Amino acid sequence: MRVLRYIGRRMLFIVPQLVGIVLVSFLLVKMIPGDPAVMMVGPMASAETLAKLRTELGLDGSIMYQFWIYLTNLVQGDLGTSWQTTRPVLNDLFVRFPATLELITLSLLLALLIGIPLGVAAAYFRRSVVKKFSDYYGLLAGALPDFWLGMILIYFFYTIFQIAPAPLGRIGFAVMTPSPVTNFLIIDCILEGNWQALWSTLGHLILPVVTLGVITAGPILKMTQSTMERMLESDFIRYADMCGLPKSVVIRQAFRNSLPSIVTIVSVLYGFLVGGAVLVEIVFSWGGAGQYAVQGVLNADINPVLGFVLFSAVLSLIIYLIVDLIYFAIDPRIRG
Amino acid sequence: MSSVLDVSGLVKHFPIAGQRAVVQAVNDISFHVKKGETLSLVGESGSGKTTVGRCVLGLIQQTAGVIDFQGETIGKRRNVRSRDLRGKMALVFQEPAESLDPRVRVADTIGEPLRSRGVSRENRRRRIAEIAKRVGLSDATLDQFPAELSAGQQQRVGIARAIVTDPELIVLDEPTSALDPTARAEIIDLLIRLQKEFDTAYLFISHDLSTVRYLSHRVAVMYLGMIVEQGTANEIFSNPRHPYSVGLLSSVLLPNPKLKREVSVDLTGEIPSPIDLPKGCYLAGRCPFATDQCHKEMPPIEDLGNGHLVQCHHFREALKGHEALDYFDEFQAQTEQLLEAGRRSTGTVAGQTK
Amino acid sequence: MANETQKVFDTGQPVLSIDGLNVSYPVYGEDPVQAVRDLDLHIQPGEIVGLVGESGSGKTTLARSVMGLLVQPGRVDTGTIQFDGKDLRALPEKQLRAVRGKDIAMVIPNPRSELDPLVTVGRQISNVARAHLGIKRDEADQMAMDMLNAVQIPDPDRRFKAYPHELSGGMAQRVVMAISLVCSPKFVISDDATSGLDVTVQAQVLDLLRALVRSHNTAMLFITRDIGITAHFCDRVAVIYAGEIVEIAPMQSFFENPMHPYSVMLLAAFAHNPTLRAKWHKPLASAAPAHGGACAYAGRCVHAEDHCRQNSAELRELAPGHLVRCHFPVERPL
Asked: CA–CA separation, C97 vs C99, rounded Å?
């Protein structure tokens, strides 16, 4: 019951939080130099056309007025139109966000699979090869740019060995794309029973997921290792050793107590990757949300940018809510 | 003799974040400390004794009651931090290592209270040297950092810092509980000597009854934010009347197997939560003498004469079956006898080695 | 404390025999710090031995050596630790784990930080029983419940499902006692276990601990800074200084006739008469213990002579069962 009350209280705050986020990002985006009207009509247009367009777009009003317009549209579910794609931003994001989420979710899963076992092992075997390896791994993962790793992987597995598909999107050109339901390609393929498309989708996912997963495993590894080390030196683990509990039990106990920190870093990484995966998206022509937002920034196309910020904000809020629920489940001290 | 400190009706409640309930840390207590006198506040953790110390210095604001220091009221405006009271009151902490700035040399730590009062550098140096000598710190230690000193020496620094301005009152918050017994004895000796030299009043906060017996003139026994019994140290230790005092005294394990206090008051269980105080006498749930009356009404304060106050419905029975004998004095006598009798053996025994 | 006359233990087969134990902590670029030095200690089944020492005297290192859980980089250099006929130092880690918690149990201070914050206390007790006795969860839970009753925790059904942060210090101390006693060990080490408790609670906990240990004929090494406890709780008292046992004696004998100047100084710390205390107490707390061809206590001893500074002292039996490591032990006229 405490949990329900807690969630309810969190929900209450979501709306004002979102308005605040939209306001700040609106002001910031407006500060980016570049006039959308000029970009839209081109440099050759007459001053008259330009002025007309500006009135149509509401660009001649005050910034607060423009914000008010945006907000009233937003309430009706209208995020505006991207003048680049000429489609409603909402529709674009419904395609692009799932593309990014699919990519980063799988990448994070891979990162967890690499980072947690390595981190636990490195923390437990303090003077072993594993510990050395994980030290170097953490260093390299922190130093290597992800897009560079992506290009190296493409060079070897596509160009030389020719076992990976071309880095051009989420699915092969020759494959029947499943009808969009969730826009998560894997799910759509399964829903339709389109195994050929599923196979192609998975194939296209491998290289970008490996790229992001290998790099993101770095911080997860470091966090797991340092928290586990701290836990293994803590009083209650020392006491568990004194009680002669089997090694596996002791490690599990330490890991359970490390989980909150690991969950925290994963949630931070998740929020970060929504925008942070953009370079990898570009390298693999992924057509994800980050790419969409960057295009918007470069072309003074404000609506996609704001839409992206809004979606990311909602996503972050959901993630933090989930994180809190996980804390609730793990730690009786928070349950109170 | 006039009182340096006069506290009456002191109440301190701490609010709990997000709740209407409060922690009732101190509940209506009154006491005074005279010039050159030591009053000990004795109690277990959660009895509110530290909170009283903080209130007296004005470090926290009391909820109700009057704290009178040399005829001036201590409160939010006037406290140990105020310009005119700075240096007249001082505090010595429990953990010497934590109360000293690790990056400040000993001499500067001791001189800090003087500096904030605007004493000139030359006078400061002279005073620091003098005080260091009195607390038994060598000149060499003055240039050292706290981490280079033993816990006992660190506490000497803490005491030197407190005494350097020649204060009227020092609040000593468990100053010896972090120390080994031998270092503890040295610090207690030092405190007693300094008190005689400077005629300072001490408010000594402690849970260690053997130390309290040693240096107190008067003792106030605290339980759940109340002073359940107070009186002269002799009176409290040899003729305790409150069941809690008796239980507390009989729980002390003195290093002498012959002196086992007959447990006449067996305090079962543990101290209740100060958030949800029981009705009636706070000890009723743990007290073997408790009757219905105890569970219903708070006992009045009885005056047994000579400043011996006790707050208990059954203060006449608490000592029944328990001979009023000061075990601490008996212990002293026997220990002194033991120490007196012992002498170093002659070399002949040593000659037998190997 | 309940009255109980001191028990005398015959010199049969000890449950724990420590012989010639040397433990040191290497220090980078310096000589290693010798934490325990040539230590012999024999504890009979059912006997409670108090080990008194100030901080840094090596008493915790000794306990950890017995458990085989020295803090890095400490190491046992020489010596044997025989427990119940087994050489603990020769046991592989896996078998040592089977001994820890089952045959040798440890009671520790600050129990609230020593318990896993995420597991209910009942489960923590039953986990230990399950790990050592190879029994099913139901059976282990029942044993845990019995233990909670045995350590007299009020409302054990509810406490079984409580988390450590929901317990008071005294309550958590009882849980730790339950954990250490659930497998009916032959030997218990208590390391400063009651130091964090209030006096009234400490008295309750000690009474209970002794009753439980006595009823199972469990031997115990009771490590403490508080010499007062040993007078009411132990059968024998050992005083440790700078890693050496300087005096060990049956409890009555020790308190009636303490013979090592250090033991006397520990008692003198309780004396209120400063001049009398000065007879035994040298206020030079920083004097480092000397070693190698000198009595370790010589630097702090009020009665040290050249002989003490040039010859190390041996433990000698000066009264029945009363061993002292001093060239000039304290004498008292009869």
From this structure: 5
